[in-house]
């Protein structure tokens, strides 16, 4: 990689780190582009060059955090006793992340308000493909009903995402969390060939 490309990647990474901190601390609207760029010794030009505008920078931060959430949830799911329990654990872990202040503010509150429908975000699309593969495997092994795998994956992911959005927006997230998880697991269990 040449020096110019390395420098651009370095600047991009610095801006994401600074923006992540500013958005978590102050929220998207109150975080100024000048504060973000000066925190890492860069100019607005560097921000515009790398992200187009402040909204583009938020999209990059949301993508990073949402991808981290998905990876965390997948790791939790991978520790479960079987693939079905793993799928439930993954969704539950994603919902539980809604209690983390940085995730609440950036991904679940400011993200949808500024970037629109979270189900259309690239990070969510990647998560959908992983869930679809898991669902296909569970259908082929007879664990789940023989239904359309994409529909089931979209509904499972949508339920987990909406549960997390509900928890984050609630005035009492810790009180709402167990209800959101219980409902998510009950809905998901409806896909089982032989319900528990």
From TrEMBL:
<dbReference type="InterPro" id="IPR009057">
    <property type="entry name" value="Homeodomain-like_sf"/>
</dbReference>
<feature type="DNA-binding region" description="H-T-H motif">
    <location>
        <begin position="32"/>
        <end position="51"/>
    </location>
</feature>
<dbReference type="InterPro" id="IPR050109">
    <property type="entry name" value="HTH-type_TetR-like_transc_reg"/>
</dbReference>
<feature type="domain" description="HTH tetR-type">
    <location>
        <begin position="9"/>
        <end position="69"/>
    </location>
</feature>
<protein>
    <submittedName>
        <fullName>TetR/AcrR family transcriptional regulator</fullName>
    </submittedName>
</protein>
<dbReference type="InterPro" id="IPR049484">
    <property type="entry name" value="Rv0078-like_C"/>
</dbReference>
<keyword id="KW-0238">DNA-binding</keyword>
<dbReference type="Pfam" id="PF00440">
    <property type="entry name" value="TetR_N"/>
</dbReference>
<dbReference type="Pfam" id="PF21351">
    <property type="entry name" value="TetR_C_41"/>
</dbReference>
<dbReference type="InterPro" id="IPR001647">
    <property type="entry name" value="HTH_TetR"/>
</dbReference>
């Amino acid at each position: 990689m040449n020096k110019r490309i390395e420098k651009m990647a370095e600047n991009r990474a610095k801006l994401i780190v600074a923006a992540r901190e500013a958005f978590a601390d102050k929220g998207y609207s109150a975080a100024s582009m000048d504060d973000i760029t000066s925190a890492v010794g860069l100019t607005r030009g560097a921000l515009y060059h790398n992200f187009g505008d402040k909204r583009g920078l938020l999209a990059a931060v949301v993508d990073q955090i949402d991808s981290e959430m998905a990876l965390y949830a997948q790791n939790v799911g991978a520790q479960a006793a079987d693939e079905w329990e793993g799928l439930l654990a993954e969704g539950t872990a994603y919902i539980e992340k809604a209690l983390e202040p940085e995730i609440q503010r950036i991904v679940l509150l400011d993200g949808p308000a500024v970037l629109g429908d979270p189900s259309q975000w690239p990070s969510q699309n990647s998560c959908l493909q992983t869930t679809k593969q898991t669902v296909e495997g569970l259908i082929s092994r007879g664990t789940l009903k023989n239904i359309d795998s994409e529909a089931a994956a979209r509904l499972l992911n949508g339920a987990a995402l909406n549960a997390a959005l509900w928890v984050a927006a609630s005035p009492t997230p810790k009180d709402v969390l167990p209800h959101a998880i219980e409902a998510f697991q009950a809905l998901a269990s409806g896909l089982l060939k032989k319900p528990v």
